[in-house]
Amino acid sequence: MKLLKVGLSMILMGTVAITSSHASVEKGKKIYMKKLKAPCGFSGAKFAIKHTQDEWETIMNAGKFKEEIKKICPKVKLKRIRDKYIRDLYDFSYEFASDSGKVPTC
Question: CA of 43: how far to CAs of 16, 40, 73, 78, in Å?
Answer without folding.
Answer: 33, 8, 11, 18
